[in-house]
Description:
The protein is an all-alpha fold. The chain is built from 17 helices and no strands. The relative contact order is 0.18. The N terminus is likely disordered.
Amino acid sequence: MGDGLTDASRSAVPDRRRTPAQGTLAPMEASIARTLWATAEPLHALTYFAPEVRAATEAAGLRGFWRGYFATRAAPLGAVGPGPVTAAFYNFAPTMVARAVPEVWASTPPERAWAARLDGIDAALEACFGGRPGSDDALAEAADLAVEAVAAAPVEGRVLGAAYAGLPWPASPRLALWQALTVLRELRGDGHNAALLAAGIDGCAAHVLFAATGGSARGVTQPNRGWTDEDWDAAAGRLADRGLIDGERTATEAGHARRAGVEAATDRLATGPWAALGPARTERLRALLVPLSQAVVGAGVVPVPNPIGSPWPPPR
């Protein structure tokens, strides 16, 4: 299968074994990792909100949104049980995962689920950008840069991201771009989970603390992640016992500091691809992605706010 890349960019893709050591970016430069995530997330998030994706997954035998979500997102891991999926996704209630996995594999094996995801996102990208002047060139150039960033991304300790990084590249540049952004996003997510774990913040508590510090509200995240009221209250109690939230479930100074520490660690762990790409080419990718993501958000396909916490506009 072709990779959809130009000859020049293909030859320039670095060998993963020669990935630059992390920690080489200044603190200000480390924030680039957050900017690139926020800029790219609407393009990735089409897979969750676009009707074309829902139609493709249902045609593949995945009835209902959440069966489609768990099957298509977990597909690169193979036909695993609920334990690995819960661990990799981190902030979903185990009972919610178990309602879909492993049952989904009986009707739709991972390979078919992944193919359906690609078919759906291809149709969604066509709906967003097909015929838009200059979009093909922008998608192709952005794909070259994003695929190169993936090749330089460290995968050690990042199980879900590593599974994604091992997938073959689609021939279509727009699909290659979506897949590259998705790989980078899942690698960043693995690092975020590690940062939460190191900070002693479990999956449900992560949502409670996020809401307490001004992030997505409980009414947005709780029903979309499967936690019961009892789960949520227990997590709030654990955070309160540690002095991270007060009796009104508002973050204390220590709570704000703890969340800021998690976010900073997440950014540091995600700088490898951008250090390898370099400031000028990273900025070029960001500049290419802004109007593409703006078109998605502007069309109302990906809502803001949303359960995944993707902001718009992205920080600079």
